[in-house]
Amino acid sequence: MTEKDEVLPEEEAKYHPRLWMLDEFDGEINGEKKFHKSLVQYRDSVGLKEEWSFVRAPRGPTDPGFTEIIEKYDDLNLIAMEKEGQIHIYKETEKGSRFIRGLKEGLRILKKDQVQSRETNLQLVAKVNKERLGSDIELDDDIQEMKELPLGHDV
Q: Is position 40 within any domain?
């Protein structure tokens, strides 16, 4: 896999931002759109735009590695995916909760300064978006700017 093909560079992947985001949402996110938009807002808040690209899709920015990684988390029983009608529901399992709790504690010891900023930004994005629908987040100015770019464009 070339660097361009990586979903997230190895240095960043060890933080498991998708799983950590789910944890910050109290273990449940209702809607793929909400998940994608929250992840892109987190990415931009910590300055990872150059390292972690999203692709402009019809409904705004999407994380190109999302489905594959979520399926791997599901296979490992770290999350459970459900579908209610057209809505995808992502739930953190007890095993996933223990994993992310251990990851946070370990990273706080090993990479204190780097983790503090990331954790604060994850908490902020979750706090702002937790009670919102994905379609509401989609109306945010930052997401609207990304939606103005051509389809398939890296954002």
A: yes
Range of the domain at 66: 10-143
Residue 4, pLDDT score: 43
- Looking at the domain assignment, is residue 17 inside a domain? yes
> Tens digit of pLDDT for each residue in 43-79?
999 998 988 999 999 888 999 889 999 999 999 999 9
What is the CB neighbour count within 10 angstroms for residue 113?
6
Q: Tell me the residue ranges of DSSP E strands in the chain.
A: 28-30, 55-57, 60-62, 79-84, 87-92
The segments of the chain whose pLDDT lies below 50 read: 1-5
Is residue 97 helix, strand or coil? Answer: helix
Residues ≥6 apart with Cβ < 8 Å to 42: 17, 21, 121, 122, 125
Query: Using CA atoms, how far apart are residues 34 and 38, in angstroms rounded to an integer?
Result: 6
